[in-house]
Amino acid sequence: MAGRIRDDDIAEVREKARIDEVVSSYVTLRNAGGGSMKGLCPFHDEKSPSFHVTPSRGFYHCFGCQQGGDVFNFLMEIDGIGFTEAVERMAEKYGVQLRREDGGAPEAPRGPRRSQMIDAHKQAQAFYADALGSPDAVVARQFLDGRGFDKDAAETFGVGFAPRDGDALFKHLRQKGFSEEELVTGGLVARGRSLYDRFRGRLVWPIRDASGDVIGFGARRIFDDDRIEAKYLNTPESPIYKKSQVLYGIDLARREIARSAKAVIVEGYTDVMACHLAGVPTAVATCGTAFGDDHARVLRRFLNDHDESRGEVIFTFDGDQAGQNAAMKVFRSDQNFASQTYVAVAPDGLDPCDLRIQRGDEAVRELVENRRPLYRFALENVIAGFDLDRADGRVDALRQAATMVSSVRDKSKVEAFSREIAQMVGVDVDDARREVRRAASRPARSSGPVRQQGRPTTPPPSDLAPQQPPAPPLPNLRDPRFSIERATLKLVLHHPALVAPAARELTPDDFTHPTYRGVWETIAASGGPAAADAGWAGRLRDAATDRTVSAVLTELSVEPLMMSKEPDLPYVHAHVFKLMELTATRRLTEVKSRLQRTDPLEQADDYNKFFAELMTLEQRRRHLHERAMGAP
Ligand code: ZN
After folding, report:
1. Residue ranges of the chain with pLDDT lower than 70?
2. What is the pLDDT of residue 203?
3. How many angstroms is it from 73 CA to the middle of ligand 1?
4. Which of 98, 400, 415, 585 suits 577 as a labelling partner, its CA being 20 to 30 A distant?
5. Side-chain-facing half-sphere of 475: CA atoms under 13 Å
6. What domains, with CATH codes, occur in the chain?
7. What's the rounded Cα separation, in Å, for the pair 520 and 510?
8. 64 Cα–ligand 1 center, Å
9. What is the pTM for the complete model shown?
10. Would you say 212 and 24 are in contact if contact means Cβ atoms under 8 Å apart?
């Protein structure tokens, strides 16, 4: 490194480097038309892709966070490396010989270079893989053999053996010209009284980043006299190894994850191997830490799950308590995934590796195919803790399950979950819904601010104990979904006499926003609009027990109607009957769903009952629709 790299060489590298190819090691890109591609931005948190790459011009730009530049900027930003190193990496990848200019000041070194640390890991991997064939490694080979992995499998995954002597790798790599600093900073060598190999007498798996570079190792204890008790040791945090983001197997799985929009999360290195060998090529595992928000973010960029209906993340968990706790933890952070989250649990709690040994490849594929939605798994776990044959047991189970569901931020799912709970606990859907609403309106336990975009704090991996999820804030009263509820209540408050006849059949269930429901309940408790007289408004405010309800009651009484002329009966009917029609439609959906879950032969009585209800409801809905449209 005599001096600056020549400008024309830099230009040549820039021209030859394919930015779409480089970016694809971090983000799944899709065609965006006009010669451009897009994906989820790796520099900020987002749900829909605003990160664009234009291969023909060699640029990327994010319309969300305004990050942008050429291929060098991208590498500098995402891997935290310097300009020179970015140029060198691309030169090597795309076969450009770099020449240096004399006299120019070389870039000041900032600790060991990423490329050197990567290279050291590559050499270490080859060294370990070689050692797996040595006489000392017989226990290591037996371990692999006992888990159904032959020589081919070991080679495919680059598995190796770290010799038992204290500094065999250190000496080997020093001989190859790596500096002590590079080896220590990268984590291959540890510093005690002297320098020694971090992994000794262990079976080692190379951990690769998405582009296939080895960035660390996972090492399993195989000797009884290993002085380190831990079953697994992993590379410590380093400039190239970030354990909160590393996914073992991502280099092999990422293309298939992008193609199938599926990812399978397993718990260990052998499980990843077993899955891939059994025909589940989308399997990855975290390395020595629980699956966290950062992992979710990394995975999401490969899934590119911007479309709600696409993207499945399937977790395989043990059926035991630890696995259930892990599932609960994921459930609470599930919000990170726009994709559907599933759980696959083997019948007798076998992990994929054991399953493959005992039942073969087919059983592993079946395990993944027989996945269940995570929320159902989590709900079942919660409900299983109660005696549902007792009335108080059902009440408690309902309350617990409702609390869980109320933490789900995707409100479109809450209704479906409420129905599931009702079925699992054996209570009425309305009761389940009411309980969920109640849970949602309970004040959040922690009053912390809504998590900020960017770098949220991830709970430590040991934090697996179930905790109360914070209740989400109520939906906005001005949300268009509730506009007809709002308008109807205003009509009732401003023109009670005109509205009273039509409003006789209104019920609390016609109001889906808890606050509007509260307002209606207050009105009903005060005799309804038919009882309106001079003192009505005052009585209403006194009757409101909830402060929010009381405030909204006043607001609605004061806010003018959205029309200039006085409302007439057709206008009133277009609101009141429409509202009731919507309720009937919701009930219809419910009954249809029940009907679907009822076997017409086995449960003939229920089936006939639901069917009759369906007919009645359908008729009622039609009738309400006609009245809303102006029929007398
Ligand atoms: Zn961005």
Report:
1. 1-2, 103-110, 304-310, 318-323, 331-339, 409-410, 443-473, 564, 593
2. 97
3. 14
4. 415
5. 18
6. 7-94 (3.90.580.10), 114-241 (3.90.980.10), 250-373 (3.40.1360.10), 385-440 (1.20.50), 480-628 (1.10.860)
7. 9
8. 5
9. 0.62
10. no
